[in-house]
Design goal:
The chain is an alpha+beta fold and 410 residues long. The protein is built from 14 helices and twelve strands. It has two domains: 170 residues, Reverse transcriptase/Diguanylate cyclase domain (Alpha-Beta Plaits), CATH 3.30.70; 130 residues, DNA polymerase, Y-family, little finger domain (Dna Ligase, domain 1), CATH 3.30.1490.100.
Length: 410
């Protein structure tokens, strides 16, 4: 369900972001890491990337999503930790429970971020933000930054701006404070949204990625204020409906509600190989495993999907996705696997290396009836055969034949 609110009522939205969340959790159990450059993520010799890094590491230019090998070159003394995602999820749930006590209108957008609609809360925004920040620090030992405004867009940007400025930024002659989390609180009063946004670069706006920013730059539009001054009609002619939305967002307008529940739209599983894989049997085996994992999650949610998708990435980082619609929704690993194989075989050429492979299912719907122990074996088989026959009709006979195993040398 979506929680909506009358546009006649002045909304008050808070965006909360846990500062360097994974690293902050690690410091709770390993206090000796405080003040040291360290990162959570994969190993550099296994194509690992930085999932989170300490503020001490950021002084060397290390950033999230950076290849770990590059991070290590930038900061040779970098300490690398493997992630403990079960622990991070458990701590995240405790944070969200604290936020839920402030308002039931809570939208968690990632493991370390959330929006809160506090329009009816008795406290003013500054008081409430400081209460939440203090509560999370004292109860869980975690730092966080908050932004508040009349809508989600400006609240999120307020958090980003506050973190960038760094409430604890060092003054002249001071050292070491850059090693500390920002713990920022930035509040944009109602009516000052456009003024707050105007001097900021356009890339901070939602919906402005590298390509859009490049097109805006070619038009001489560099700041959000310059974008806000544009004609909605002219921008719509150049960017379509997106152009109209860009101008409205640049003016600080955003009517999107805080959403308390998201419907699952797809379920997928992907694998990035430590080394590029050329072996067809190995690639098909991985896809079988992924299909089984996807099917298990579908069955746990009592759902079935009508579209099977694959994702491929070649060694040069070229990435493609392909999909196939089924006549009947499924939650069966065999059907998902065979559809994925069919899609894969239309793209892959013998000997071509693969860097990443993934299998997913979308077009989800609740199952009216699950297979039970009382289903006759031949009934299950008929369902599977019917689906496989459909795939053969679309892609040709023999698509499910596995390559013969090489004979052992005597």
């Amino acid at each position: 369900m979506e929680e909506t609110q009358s546009t006649l009522t002045l909304r008050r939205i808070i965006h909360l972001d846990l500062d360097a969340f994974f690293c902050s959790v690690e410091e709770l159990s390993k206090p000796e890491l405080r003040g040291k450059p360290f990162a959570v993520g994969g190993r550099p010799d296994q194509r690992g990337v930085v999932a989170s890094c300490s503020y001490a590491a950021r002084r060397f230019g290390v950033r999230s999503a950076m290849p770990m090998g590059r991070a290590l070159r930038m900061c040779p003394e970098l300490i690398i930790l493997s992630g403990r995602h079960g622990e991070y999820s458990a701590v995240s749930r405790r944070v969200m429970a604290i936020l839920g006590e402030a308002t039931p209108l809570l939208e968690q957008i990632s493991i370390d971020e959330a929006f809160l609609d506090v329009s009816t809360h008795p406290d003013d925004l500054d008081t409430l933000c400081r209460k939440l920040q203090t509560q999370i620090r004292e109860q869980l030992g975690l730092p966080c930054s908050l932004g508040a405004a009349s809508n989600k867009l400006v609240a999120k940007i307020a958090t980003d701006v506050g973190k960038a400025r760094g409430r604890n930024a060092p003054q002249a002659g001071e050292t070491g404070l850059l090693d500390q989390p920002p713990c920022a609180i930035t509040i944009v009063p109602p009516g000052e949204e456009a003024q707050f946004l105007a001097p900021l670069p356009v890339h901070l706006l939602w919906g402005v990625g590298p390509k859009t920013a490049e097109r805006l730059d070619a038009l001489g539009i560099h700041s959000i204020g310059e974008l806000a001054a544009c004609s909605e009609i002219e921008l719509a002619q150049k960017f379509g409906k997106h152009g109209y939305e860009l101008v409205r967002h640049a003016r600080g307008l955003d009517e999107r509600p805080v959403i308390t529940f998201y419907e699952t739209k797809s379920i997928s599983q992907e694998t990035t190989f430590v080394r590029d894989v050329r072996s067809l049997p190995e690639l098909l085996k991985v896809m079988d495993q992924q299909a089984a994992q996807v099917a298990k999650r579908l069955q746990q949610k009592n759902m079935a999907g009508s579209t099977v998708k694959i994702k491929l990435r070649w060694p040069d980082f070229t990435t493609l996705t392909r999909q196939l619609s089924l006549k009947t929704p499924t939650d069966q690993p065999g059907i998902i696997s065979q559809a994925a194989h069919a899609l894969f075989m239309k793209e892959w050429r013998e000997g071509r290396a693969v860097r990443l492979i993934g299998v997913g299912v979308s077009g989800l719907q609740s199952q009216a009836r699950q297979l039970s122990l009382w289903d006759a074996p031949n009934e299950r088989q008929q369902r599977l055969q019917s689906a496989l026959h459909e795939l053969e009709e679309r892609f040709g006979e023999g698509i499910f034949l596995r390559p013969a195993r090489p004979k052992k040398r005597s």
